[in-house]
């Protein structure tokens, strides 16, 4: 696919078919992940690929519990009260579908980042893992595979780490379900460029 077609049509796909994804395609996707930038070229990332049905089912159960916690957050609780045809309500319905069916996705990828001893994770810790996560989703899109980035599992992070055998000095940065889409790819709804891109100084037109 053309690069800009991939980038502009790679949207959150939360409704996925259970059809298996060939191993060769998964390796291609992960190879794209490790070509992402990494702070100091330390490459402290790890990507746990979960295909076992029982493990996916258990992750799905933990994710549903985590979803219940998320719905206590004011933004999401407010979205639940919006009219059904509003953008917020549509987003919430899509996210709820994922919460109810996460374990049915044929592949779940847990993107992790190793912590440096004595260093507390900060916003910039993500600079060494989230570019790789985006590469995963872009590569998946180029291959016709749907994906989305979710961090809701972190409401049950201890149980997730225990299930997957993840060490305590490793952060679970993102859970990425992969599967062939039930819906369609397409440009996601976004604010116009003039509202978010500035030139030289804040709020000055680009």
Over the alpha carbons, how many angstroms does the gyration radius reach? 18 Å
- CATH C-level label: Alpha Beta
Order of helices and strands: HHEHHHEHEHEH
Beta content comes to: 5-15%
Q: Strand arrangement, largest sheet?
A: 1-2-4-3
Residues in helix, %: 25-40%
Please describe the biggest sheet, giving its number of strands, its sense, and whether it closes into a barrel.
Answer: 4 strands, antiparallel
Number of helices: 8
Topology at a glance:
Elements: H1 3-9, H2 23-33, E1 45-50, H3 53-70, H4 74-79, H5 87-101, E2 107-114, H6 130-142, E3 146-147, H7 157-164, E4 170-179, H8 193-196
Antiparallel strand pairs: 1-2, 2-4, 3-4
Helix pairs in contact: 1-6, 2-6, 3-5, 3-7
Question: Can you give keywords for this protein?
Answer:
single chain, 206 residues, alpha+beta, NADH Oxidase, four-stranded antiparallel β-sheet, 4 strands, globular
Protein architecture, described:
This protein is an alpha+beta fold. It has one domain: 3-Layer(aba) Sandwich (NADH Oxidase), CATH 3.40.109. It has eight helices and four strands; from the N terminus they run H-H-E-H-H-H-E-H-E-H-E-H. It has a four-stranded antiparallel sheet. Helix 1 packs across helix 6 and helix 2 (23-33) runs antiparallel to helix 6. The chain is globular, with a radius of gyration of 18 Å. The mean pLDDT is 95.
